[in-house]
């Protein structure tokens, strides 16, 4: 008999008060530790090994900066904003994460899925405010200065009904929505960090995240097709955007711009070929080929000197101003309008950042602090929202490039920010003639990784069918309904799958492995021997209210005995026998003598006298579970069948004690509970 340890009861009130006193105390050392924890750069920067790290950081920073510029300009199409705001976002995110992030390798900045989620909210609010979602209006002519920026949309509205008292054009209102949404997402992330709600990310399984990314990629792909072929269709809003957009595309396919189609075909061929060659020979290349930048530079020169916009009406990016717009506090009333939309945005942004941080920390043997990561990404949203930026997240593709080019610390992020700053201050107006179809090509080619998930479906199905179903449901709902609804559906469906698994788990009768003290499922293994007069039942899930009936049905089915029905049948026979005895007839209703009747009352199918319940897979019991075990104990006892429990964990034993399963003084506990199946079987054999 194993003796349980006596645990000293802890006064939780005193512990909480002690922690509160400790956290509220303020000493110089504690203040220093707080600052160094909140700004991890203060810990690692003084220890920076300049000679060892600087070359890798500078090289990776330059490469990422070169990649960031075309991606930032391209992803502005997804967000429904001007390219300058994407450049602001990339600049500020890298600087803030450098100060507050704990990962050495992740690249935080503009991300396609986050840009899509921002763009959907911006489009919805623009539509509700009465703006035209068609962004294919002729670009404004100018020198690229900030003063000419408002000429790209001459329609202005007095938006007092949403709290903006001055006249505000389409672009002004769009960035107002984006900054309010970003600020709220950052506030949610900081609050989750304060209240340590990082566990929320656990409910986003790999299947849900992959399905969400794939479904959102289909939506992104669909949104870019109109730029590829140069047709002017309204930007679809609401549920079913993917289907509606494709219907509009096929209706207007005859209006396709031949110049855009040819340009798109050439760009996609060049980009895909370069990507495939880069993947094939990446071990020979010291750094990835800057294909996107080369394509953008060449395409801009061709468009400018070929006058593709004037001659062929090809849609171009238009004027991108230089410098920084003065900071502005996000509108409070707009925050109220997008408060609900900011929640899924905050969760997705945080989950992608933390999962990537943990992945690369494990790969390079260091640790991160998930809670600090939540603060870092939160302030990467809050602070830039005052500088006309939108939501950010870590991106896998750029992080992989960063590590492959020798990144050692977040100094590389500062170098990338300097490259973006150079574009912001001097080079942005040079992209005036860049065709939008080129940007769409860059976006579509960047989706290769997510779209390749379709090739993994057979392998995924072979590994786990339920996870494949979760992936398919999340992907379909994200693509066909909306990204936010798709994420919610994926989370709920994956949790339902877990509930169903525990509600209808595997059950089995066990047989003994010959010449051993071990027992296994007799339907899964050959050459197992049955134990005479003993049935061993295994239930592979917690026993709680939702699977109580399944537990009983499985037990009765596998043992071929329902004790309630058997007890009722016996009572019926006993009643008939009493009636015959009263009449003086010594023969039963079946024509048998009374002595033979006793044998008849014991059915032939009861071929066991002891039931052993293997509780090794039962992780916990609720009140219903305890009552269920008490019920079968009583029912089988009425049939003179003993019920023994084996392999119970301490929490299950405690639940049984509290529920009165072993009686008031636990006197019968040694005869009802065993620490192995074999001990229970040996005890059963010793009993008459």
UniProtKB/TrEMBL annotation:
InterPro entries: S04_transporter_CS (IPR018045), SLC26A/SulP_dom (IPR011547), SLC26A/SulP_fam (IPR001902), STAS_dom (IPR002645), STAS_dom_sf (IPR036513). This is Sulfate transporter. It comes from Illadopsis cleaveri. Residues 524-684 form the STAS domain. It is found in: Apical cell membrane. SUPFAM superfamilies: SpoIIaa-like. One of its GO terms (cellular component) is apical plasma membrane. The gene is Slc26a1. Keywords: Cell membrane, Glycoprotein, Membrane, Phosphoprotein, Transmembrane, Transmembrane helix, Transport. One of its GO terms (molecular function) is secondary active sulfate transmembrane transporter activity. The keyword Acetylation does not apply. It is a multi-pass membrane protein. The keyword Transmembrane applies. Belongs to the SLC26A/SulP transporter (TC 2.A.53) family. NCBIfam families: sulP (TIGR00815). PANTHER family: SULFATE TRANSPORTER (PTHR11814). The chain crosses the membrane at residues 53-77, 106-122, 173-195, 207-229, 249-273, 334-354, 375-397, 409-427, 471-500. Gene3D superfamilies: STAS domain. It catalyses: sulfate(out) + 2 chloride(in) = sulfate(in) + 2 chloride(out); oxalate(in) + sulfate(out) = oxalate(out) + sulfate(in); oxalate(out) + 2 chloride(in) = oxalate(in) + 2 chloride(out); nitrate(in) + chloride(out) = nitrate(out) + chloride(in).
């Amino acid at each position: 008999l194993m003796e349980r340890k006596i645990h000293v009861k802890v006064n939780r009130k005193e512990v909480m008060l002690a922690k509160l006193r400790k956290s509220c105390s303020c000493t110089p050392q504690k203040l220093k530790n707080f600052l160094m924890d909140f700004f991890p750069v203060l810990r690692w920067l003084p220890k920076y090994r300049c000679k060892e790290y600087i070359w890798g950081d500078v090289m990776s920073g330059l490469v990422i900066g070169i990649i960031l510029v075309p991606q930032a300009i391209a992803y502005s199409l997804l967000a429904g904003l001007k390219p300058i705001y994407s450049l602001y976002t990339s600049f500020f995110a890298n600087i803030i994460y450098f100060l507050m992030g704990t990962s050495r390798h992740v690249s935080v900045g503009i991300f396609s899925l986050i840009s899509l989620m921002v763009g959907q909210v911006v489009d919805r609010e623009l539509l509700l405010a009465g703006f035209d979602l068609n962004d294919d209006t002729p670009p404004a002519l100018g020198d690229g200065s900030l003063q000419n920026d408002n000429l790209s949309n001459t329609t202005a509205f007095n938006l007092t009904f949403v709290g903006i008292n001055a006249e505000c054009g389409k672009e002004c209102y769009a960035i107002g929505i984006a900054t309010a949404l970003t600020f709220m997402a950052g506030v949610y992330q900081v609050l989750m960090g304060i209240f340590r709600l990082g566990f929320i990310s656990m409910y986003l399984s790999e299947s849900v995240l992959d399905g969400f990314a794939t479904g959102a990629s289909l939506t992104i792909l669909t949104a870019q097709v109109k730029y590829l072929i140069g047709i002017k269709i309204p930007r679809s809003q609401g549920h079913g955007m993917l289907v509606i957009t494709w219907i509009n595309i096929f209706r207007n396919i005859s209006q396709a711009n031949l110049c855009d189609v040819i340009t798109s075909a050439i760009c996609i061929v060049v980009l895909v070929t370069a990507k495939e060659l880069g993947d094939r020979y990446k071990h020979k290349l010291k750094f990835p080929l800057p294909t996107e930048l080369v394509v953008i530079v060449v395409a801009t020169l061709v468009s400018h000197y070929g006058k593709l916009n004037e001659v062929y009406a090809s849609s171009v990016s238009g004027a991108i101003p230089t410098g920084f717009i003065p900071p502005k506090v996000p509108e409070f009333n707009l925050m109220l309008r997008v408060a609900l939309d900011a929640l899924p945005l905050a969760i997705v942004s945080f989950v992608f950042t933390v999962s990537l941080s943990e992945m690369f920390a494990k790969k390079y043997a260091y640790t991160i602090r998930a809670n600090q990561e939540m603060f870092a990404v939160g302030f990467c949203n809050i602070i830039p929202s005052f500088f006309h930026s939108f939501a950010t997240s870590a991106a896998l593709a750029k992080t992989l490039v960063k590590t492959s080019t020798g990144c050692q610390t977040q100094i590389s992020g500062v170098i990338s920010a300097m490259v973006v700053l150079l574009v912001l201050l001097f080079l942005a107006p040079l992209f005036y003639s860049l065709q939008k179809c080129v940007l769409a090509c860059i976006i579509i080619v960047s989706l290769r990784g997510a779209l390749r998930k379709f090739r993994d479906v057979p392998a995924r199905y072979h590994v786990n069918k339920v996870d494949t179903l979760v992936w398919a449901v999340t992907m379909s709902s994200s693509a066909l309904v909306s990204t936010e609804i798709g994420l919610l559906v994926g989370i709920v469906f994956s949790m339902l799958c877990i509930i169903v698994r525990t509600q209808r788990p595997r059950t089995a009768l066990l047989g003994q492995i010959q010449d051993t003290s071990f027992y296994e499922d007799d339907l899964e293994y050959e050459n197992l021997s049955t134990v005479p007069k003993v049935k061993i039942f295994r239930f592979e899930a917690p026993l709680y209210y939702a699977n109580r009936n399944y537990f009983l049905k499985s037990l009765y089915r596998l043992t071929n005995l329902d004790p309630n029905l058997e007890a009722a049948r016996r009572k019926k026979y006993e009643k008939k026998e009493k009636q015959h005895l009263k009449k003086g007839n010594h023969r039963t209703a079946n024509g048998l003598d009374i002595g033979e009747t006793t044998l008849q009352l014991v059915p032939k199918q009861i071929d066991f006298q002891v039931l052993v319940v293997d509780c090794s897979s039962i992780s916990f019991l609720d009140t219903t579970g305890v009552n269920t075990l008490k019920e079968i104990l009583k029912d089988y006892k009425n049939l003179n069948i003993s019920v023994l429990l084996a392999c119970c964990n301490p929490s299950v034993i405690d639940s049984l004690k509290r529920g009165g399963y072993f009686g008031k003084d636990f006197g019968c506990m040694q005869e009802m509970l065993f620490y192995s199946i074999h001990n229970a079987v040996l005890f059963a054999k010793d009993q008459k």
